[in-house]
Amino acid sequence: MKLEAVIAVICAVAFAGLLLFQTPGQFVTLLAGAVILIAILRWPIFGLVLFGFAATFVPFMTVQIGLRTTASEAILVFIWLGIAWQFLLGRRLPAFGPTERMVIYLMLFSALPFIVGEWMIYIDPHPPITIGAPVISSSNAGTPSGIVNWARWLIDVSCIFLVPLVIDSERKRDAVITALLLGNFAMLGLSLTLFLRNNVATDIIPVLDALKYAHPELTQHLFKALQVRLGTTWLHPNLSAGEIVMFLPLAMYYAGVHRGWRRWLGASVALMGLVGIVLTGSRGALLSVVAVLGIFAVLRVPGTRKTLIAAAVFGAALVSFYPAVQSRLSQTFSAKNESTEVRMQEYREFPRVMATYPFGIGFKVDPPVPGSGLIGISNLWLNYVYKLGLLGALLYCAVLLRWWREVRPRGTVRVVDHGNGVWLACFGGLGGALVTGLFDHYYSFTMVLIALFWLMMGINLQAARALPQVGTVERRAPMQRVLAARAS
Asked: How many Å from the N-terminal Cα to the C-terminal Cα in the chain?
């Protein structure tokens, strides 16, 4: 009997049994979920497209699949199951590049701080929930073991490998990028509509409750404390702005190069993204946008100067006519800003962290460790030191160095088209994300967000390797460079 027939019989028996014991509404929900699951297992690209939309629109929506996790990470698990099935049917593993191989070393090394953290750190399995507890966390707070958190981190980082495994054509790559932008469009449209209605972030809370976001009481406290800043499905304003920064160059690329509805999609995401960044009041995101546009100006990317001028005029107009933004920006860039003072205290205390946890704290809990008397750190690279130790942070830097060597521009970029646009946009988005790392730690271990980061890195690497040249200088293999030098 063929595999398809076996699956059909199993599904028929299972659905008949469910229909006997479940209500019609529950049965329809389970049936729809089963159809989506089978589609992902059969066509992993469908799962990756679905992940791109869900992860950018409703990143922390939770589902129950034996344990409670985000819907986005559940989709990733099913994608890997589909890929594993293809390998069982005889598919060969593609050759990975130097960046992907270095990521494998980083993932393998993470076992050491995981084991050390399991041994050194004790967490009460039933801690009292306090208002001061973090709402956004890469860990399941209060778990006696960090193995689930470690597994989630590995799954998120593995997104870089999904690109060569699943995306084997420009059509599939375009479908994934379009899903990412559609998710951002939905997220920004929903968030801005609810926020601008009453100019308070708390209006989005009922939506998050319907999506089964974890710790609703802490979510309410967060939005009430930051209600003058834009509330989104990404919860914290700084996290929201950091996510927008990474996809802003892709939106600008779609708006400038594509035609039809894709151009309108890119323009809408870019415009709403700029509004969203201003309304979040995130210094790191604002400076990251300026840094990315500055790099593009140095590379002489067409249209960068016009974009800088338009963004400056638009931002000035928004600040002039929106008092809430004026108040937030005056506090943000004030010399007596409270968050700045907190960050300075974090840097002063960080040597104690390195002395106390030389191999990192692992994955049992997020910084700071309860009862340690230490504080956290709002820096991407130092948060790697906090979690994986100095060696783990150096491995992460080695990954970034390999990535930089493969994708960096070799000269000016005088033309942006369908051939090099994805490479340049992803390069700018990842650069912006790393710049935000100087001010916030979210791109280090925040689940779902780091999955998007590594997915973007995979797309960037694939696009760069497909180019015969990056910028105006030809990309040559090492042997070709040697032969060229001898000939000259």
From this structure: 65
Closest CA to 42 of 198, 135, 166: 166
Q: Which tokens is 482 given?
A: 């040697």
Q: How many CB atoms lie within 10 A of CB 321?
A: 9
Using alpha carbons only, give the angle 452, 383, 64 rounded to the nearest 5 degrees.
50
Burial of 372-384, coded b for 16+ CB within 10 Å and e otherwise, reads: eebbbbbbbbbbb
**All residues at 6 or more sequence positions from 316 whose CB lies less than 8 Å from its CB, including other chains:** none
The two structure tokens encoding residue 373: 């008397």
Which helix (H) or strand (E) covers residue 469, if one does?
Answer: strand 469-470
Distances (CA, A) of 218 to 125, 127, 215, 401: 19, 15, 5, 38
Beta strand 62-64 pairing with 469-470: unpaired
Q: What are 168-223's pLDDT values in tens digits?
A: 999 999 999 999 999 999 999 999 999 988 888 899 999 999 998 988 888 888 88
CA-to-CA distance for 27 and 24, rounded, in angstroms?
A: 5
Residue 138's pLDDT band, with cuts at 50, 70 and 90, is: very low
Q: How far is CA 35 from CA 28, 32, 42, 470, in A?
A: 11, 5, 11, 42
- Measured CA to CA, the distance from residue 180 to residue 159 in angstroms comes to 14
Contacts of 441 (CB under 8 A, 6+ apart): 376, 377, 378, 379, 380, 382, 383
